[in-house]
Specification:
The protein is an all-alpha fold and 204 residues long. The protein is 65% helix and 0% strand. The protein has eleven helices and no strands. The longest helix has 15 residues.
Length: 204
């Protein structure tokens, strides 16, 4: 059956002009607008802001009649104004990842990818107690090890399931010894004691 009427045709010239307007080369004003919009929308680091602006410059180019942009100066100005705070970003990012059950290796990778300096990455690398808390949180969330379904570890398929759970924990950024300790824990109470031991010993 034919439709009652043909769908409306798009005005290609009009839409083409819209795309052309969006793709206009950047100039100092437009670059500043992009930077302000980005820091207003996202908690970010100096490295991430710089990478974002570089990407926009590659995509849209730079107006020929203006001096080349000094991205380092622009980013430094935003840091000085407090729009960008690497320390705050690192603290929030690290806490967020650990709270979701990710391990120290994932924290390090994400902070490095964000351009956080090595010294700051070291400051916000989780200590032993935080690492144990994070992997226990992942096990609880994913129902691994002592949080598995009742009788799961007594089934014939447990060895294969155990290997899958270990692999998942390692992919999440945890080390093998911690993963094995959690998977083989007899019950959740044993994990609580393991975490408390690290808390009592304090940061190493």
């Amino acid at each position: 059956m034919r439709p009652d009427s043909d769908p409306p045709r798009q005005d290609k010239s009009r839409y083409g002009k819209r795309r052309e307007r969006r793709a206009r080369p950047l100039d100092p004003t437009r670059l500043e607008e992009l930077a302000l919009a980005y820091v207003a929308r996202f908690a970010t680091s100096a490295g991430k802001l710089r990478a974002y602006l570089r990407r926009k410059l590659r995509e849209r180019g730079w107006a020929d009649d203006t001096p080349d942009p000094d991205l380092d100066a622009l980013v430094a100005r935003y840091v000085e104004k407090g729009y960008v705070d690497d320390e705050g970003f690192a603290r929030s990012k690290s806490a967020g990842l650990l709270g979701r059950g990710y391990g120290a290796r994932r924290v390090e990778q994400d902070l490095q990818a964000a351009g956080i300096a090595e010294g700051l990455r070291a400051r916000f690398s989780p200590d032993e107690a935080a690492r144990r808390e994070a992997i226990a949180a992942l096990a609880r969330k994913r129902r691994f090890g002592p949080f598995s379904k009742e009788d799961a570890r007594a089934s014939e398929t447990w060895p294969r399931t155990r290997e899958k759970q270990l692999a998942a924990m390692i992919r999440a950024g945890h080390d093998f010894d911690h993963a094995r300790r959690v998977i083989d824990a007899p019950d959740p109470a044993a994990l609580d004691e393991w975490i408390e031991e690290a808390q009592e010993e304090g940061p190493k």
